[in-house]
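Re: magnesium ion structure - here you go.
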Amino acid sequence: MSRGLLLALVLLVSACGQREAQVHDTQLLVFGTLVNVSIWGGDKDTAVAATSAVEQRLVQMHRDLHAWQPGPLTRINHAITARKSVQLDSEQALLIRRGTELSRQSGGLFNPGIGSLIGLWGFHSDDGPHGPPPGDALIQIQLAKTPRMSDLHIKDGRLHSDNPAVQLDFGGFAKGYAVDEAIRTLREHHVDNAIVNAGGDLRVIGRHGGRPWRIGIRDPKNSGVIASVEVAGDESVFTSGDYERYFEYQGRRYHHIIDPRSGYPAMGSSSVTILSKEAIVADAAATALFVAGPEAWQTTAMAMGIDQAMLIDDQGRVYMTPSMAARVHFEIDPPPPVQIVSP
Ligand code: AMP
Ligand code: MG
């Protein structure tokens, strides 16, 4: 996807400046985006074997978690529509459980059960969404069916839904899960210092030699970098933005992050960046806080256990938690107006 390519290139700016002989860098075109696996230190054979294992794992997850190409997830969705129970494998059960918990914490703003709504907007398409937007009557019909993750129950490894309108779309947190799995795979191969960067969304373990990894955060208004942050240890950085997938119709932009309350693309935010340990949490929280918007993002952050968040609103104003503000370095001059908001 071009958006992934673009941001990966932007973010490589920081990596390239620090390139050293000890860095083993590989680009993988998987999971619908360009994934950069960068391993620092260790021997080359280990790095090659670890990267190849990551690639296999990502290819497998992309197939298993796809929301519209026929596969394991669409089979589950068909069963839910048909009011039938369906056997889950352990990964599917884990993702549904975690998705349900993250949805509950977000007060339903993150809702991976609104696949029908996302499909209605045309985002379940390989060649990108085109518009026009769906008619309001169709949106209201979908909303009235109130698909919620709490409608789902897993018993003895089988999934049952109280509501046939629930349709799973893991797009809001699958990349986070995949990045966590990639890091787990690297660790299994005894890699201690690495970064897995999936089109700008990433997780870091260890250090980049004697210094942390420097990460660029994209300016939602253009393809440049608005700010940077240094990460080390074990941390993830995930961004949700209105520039990632969208169509334009009659001069208006319709993006892919849907407010489950209105059925329309969420209003007020341009991008949200989250720092947290687990990528799956950072990914889900970025989507949830984007939906919450400039007025309510802190409440949602607190409810999801997030203390490092940055929201850029549709006017270019920046809102940050104090612990995020302590780490963010603006790369544009003059820096944008910033509001630091204590939870
Ligand atoms: P992200 O880029 O992580 O914010 O994820 C956006 C993707 O998540 C969309 O392309 C949809 O597949 C899905 N999605 C859209 N709105 C929501 C929502 N409110 N909750 C959960 N997933 C969503
Ligand atoms: Mg997300």
